[in-house]
């Protein structure tokens, strides 16, 4: 079995990331990771190699009871938008990794856009 789920995921992640790097123009990258139980997001400055802001469904101050649903993803998206504003970042590009843009990933992106991030 040459193309397992994992290898297809890794190929998709690299394809998405390489396309986004070409269009970056020095903007920060909003990188999303989703596991079976949690969702986390980081705002990364690739030029300097530092994380500007991050948010996760594991954080107690977000008040997330069930960490694996769309409501949790929405709260994480709103939190990262607020933290990005405090850090002075208004525009970034959305790196969904190898995850498909629907469900929790889409809810996180829409909440971040409503919070004021532009991508």
From TrEMBL:
InterPro entries: Ribosomal_L18 (IPR057268), Ribosomal_uL18_bac-type (IPR004389), Ribosomal_uL18_bac/plant/anim (IPR005484). GO terms for molecular function: 5S rRNA binding; structural constituent of ribosome. Pfam families: Ribosomal_L18p. Keywords: Ribonucleoprotein, Ribosomal protein, RNA-binding, rRNA-binding. It comes from the Bacteria. GO terms for cellular component: cytosolic large ribosomal subunit. The keyword rRNA-binding applies. GO terms for biological process: translation. Belongs to the universal ribosomal protein uL18 family. Part of the 50S ribosomal subunit; part of the 5S rRNA/L5/L18/L25 subcomplex. Contacts the 5S and 23S rRNAs. This is one of the proteins that bind and probably mediate the attachment of the 5S RNA into the large ribosomal subunit, where it forms part of the central protuberance. This is Large ribosomal subunit protein uL18. It comes from Falsihalocynthiibacter arcticus. The gene is rplR.
């Amino acid at each position: 079995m040459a193309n397992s789920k994992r290898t297809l995921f890794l190929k998709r992640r690299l394809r998405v990331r390489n396309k986004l790097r070409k269009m970056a123009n020095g903007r920060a990258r909003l990188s999303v990771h989703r596991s079976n139980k949690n969702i986390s997001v980081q705002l990364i400055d690739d030029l300097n190699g530092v994380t500007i802001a991050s948010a996760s469904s594991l954080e107690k101050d977000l008040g997330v009871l069930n960490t694996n649903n769309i409501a949790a993803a929405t709260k994480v998206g709103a939190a990262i938008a607020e933290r990005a504003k405090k850090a002075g970042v208004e525009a970034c590009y959305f790196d969904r990794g190898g995850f498909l843009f629907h469900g929790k990933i889409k809810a996180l992106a829409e909440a971040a856009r409503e919070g004021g991030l532009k991508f």
